[in-house]
């Protein structure tokens, strides 16, 4: 059988070659070509008839044996149709919902209408199902036989509603071809063409051509060069020609203000020769317009986003600049003789300014979150240092409210992790600020534990608990909404914009963490944050930790330093002059970058301080000049001050070679500490003259800063000193038992917490020793050296305690 079929294939090849020869010279063999065409058409008809009959028999067999229904509908006894299931599959031009007068009678051949009417009457009279064959006119303009079934069991004659089904007897291949033709000829916005290798139309379908007054009939059998105008031919010919060469290709063209997508595909015979080309053409004008609109919309959105960024940056800058003067001069007032009433008013100014700064910072950050401008960093940092610094900061706030405050670590809590320390601090600071703000009795505690421990990751849990006023159950679900205050419906609530918790929620999400709250009115609340951190490998380099310096009349490390400061804001120049004069520096002030550069060409300075935004030459221009090797100040450190709080901008400024920065508004203590770190004056702490180096003298214990903070409040004054005495005694006892207990980590953490209070009271001779003990126990383990230094420091701590007791009763 296989051999016979191979012989047939050879005959086909021979016929194909003959046809090719005839077509090569069509003028000479026109008669023979027509005869071949007639012969092929005759045999093709035989094959189609055979296939149609087989298909008809198969469909008839399935139709007769299967209990299927093509459509169901409900009508009344006049055959007015109310609803249906499936009738549009055969009558797609019908709209049951819109056409209230749709009637089956209109679809039935007129010769069968009486037959249909008698059937419904008989079904009603005899209350029995009726089936009858009808001829119905379908969409393809042919009469089709169907079986109509009136189902009386499912009907409701009392309400004049009857269930009727239709089953078509069968669809022949010829009918399917008509359906296909109907679909292809009705394609909206699309044309499909089949070309022979002489670019003649062999097949045409679609309705887009009607736009140019072309029809299928007038195109069929003609050449593309005869049908289309030259402009259109020039546009589509490259696609057709490339397909004739055997390559699929596609692209877009514009013709008569319409845009078309073209795709040309070669049709090949069994010898892989291209014998025809299919060209697909789709009108995509509306799509292109939509694309342009989307592009314009995106550009406008980006422009609006940029304008919003500029607006927020300007808003932040314009508010921070005068705030710097307000906060700065308020601090300077504390250095002048003030009455108790004036101290009170100045304290209110400070409090209001700090609150305004908080609001500006949070609102700007909230906008940055909404604009997707907040980026998460992954760098190694000391979790222990971060939490200890937070303890120092919030202990003061808690003490002022006369409530307790503590931070507790689990024994296995990691000291170093990889993550975004700035965002972690932001989340925890917001939670602790709220907790202290809403707590008047009892205290606030933060517990830090490992929630889950993976091979390369820690999930750390931070729980902030308070004994405050609590949150009602109804408002717990709203507590993390921005601008919502869960406690605003309580009798006792605190004012605020309701930004902190909303920011915590969003930041926690950015860090892939979780945050939730439990609370009970008049009992307190617990906010829990779970954050993932990459484990430290031990090789991660921690950023250099800045040391804290406290300025006092006995310990001025910047005296005599030659400093150049450039700022165009008059108030900031006056404030800077007051500060630099009090520090006893050798300073020069200028109001623009050009004057600063002129001075740097001829005068050597120890430090250069610039504002970033100045007219003409700005702070960046000064930094670029400074780092040119051709000037005398090329190795002079440069520090910038700016009211721009955007992190990305700050990082870009630092790339210009700045050694440090402060964001306006800033506190004098922070300014002093920053400059001391940059100028590397840390080694001078131990050698500063402190009241003739006599540790036993009472005035070594300096209460200057405490007096400013207390503002005449004797109870607060005594409480702060008593806290110092308690903590110092606890530290001394730990040092004395160190040889026996050897609890180095615990002693290191106690030492760290004590450093701030010893600095606060001007005990720098003790601070230098404590910092070394902290280093030996927590960072660079050397327990033998730590033990020796603890023994030496114990006596100094005892003397400091005695001095504190003397200050308490004086």
Distance between the termini: 124 Å
Computed over alpha carbons, the radius of gyration is 45 Å
Strand count, sense and barrel status of the largest sheet are:
7 strands, mixed
Number of helices: 24
DSSP strand content: 15-25%
Second-tier CATH architecture of the largest domain:
2-Layer Sandwich
By oligomeric state, this entry counts as single chain
Helical fraction: 40-55%
According to CATH, what is the class of the largest domain? Answer: Alpha Beta
CATH-assigned fold name of the largest domain = Heat Shock Protein 90
Concise structural overview:
The chain has 810 residues and is of the alpha+beta class. Helices cover 47% and strands 20% of the residues.
Walkthrough of the structure:
Mean pLDDT is 79; it is low at 55-66, 486-497 and 683-699. 25% of the residues are buried. Strand 21 (638-642), helix 17 (647-654) and strand 22 form a beta-alpha-beta unit. It is built from 24 helices and 22 strands. By secondary structure, it is of the alpha+beta class. 47% of the residues lie in helices and 20% in strands. The strands form four sheets. Strands 11, 12, 13, 14, 15, 16 and 17 form a seven-stranded mixed beta sheet that branches. The chain has a five-stranded antiparallel beta sheet with strand order 2-1-5-4-3, covered by helices on one side. It has seven domains: 2-63, no CATH class; 67-176, PAS domain (Beta-Lactamase); 186-283, PAS domain (Beta-Lactamase, 2-Layer Sandwich); 294-366, Helix Hairpins, CATH 1.10.287; 376-535, Heat Shock Protein 90 (2-Layer Sandwich), CATH 3.30.565.10; 562-684, Response regulator (Rossmann fold); 698-809. The termini are far apart. Helix 9 packs parallel to helix 13, helix 20 (714-736) packs antiparallel against helix 22 (744-760) and helix 20 packs antiparallel against helix 24.
